[in-house]
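lol ok so funny story. i was supposed to be doing the assay writeup but got distracted and ended up predicting the structure for this chain instead. priorities right. anyway since i did it might as well share w the group, maybe its usefull for someone
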Amino acid sequence: SHSQESDNISRRKEAVGDRRRRGPSRSFPPPAQAGTHARRMIIPVRCFTCGKVIGNKWETYLDLLAKGNTEGDALDELGLQRYCCRRMVLTHVDLIEKLLNYNTLERRQPQSDMG
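and the output, tada:
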């Protein structure tokens, strides 16, 4: 009984180790190269209220606005009929560009020459 239990535990540890060695199961797109015009975004993937996927509509929404569509027409064209989903897109503030200016890895080094 005890040896069978320890065998089960060791099998679980091996399975977890295999997953760690293989890395993430999903392949994420590579980061944008310098000079490309890829848009960065931090928009919620789903509507907070109803759960509809809205994260994939942000770039299309910006393109529609750039073409001269009004906000309401752009949201209608994207198929966002519920006011909860419309709120998610309309009230999103794209702060990623401002946040990227703050690099947490570059801290001011303490001065060692205290005279």
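DSSP finds five helices and no strands in the chain. Confidence is low (pLDDT under 50) at residues 23-37.
back to the writeup now i swear
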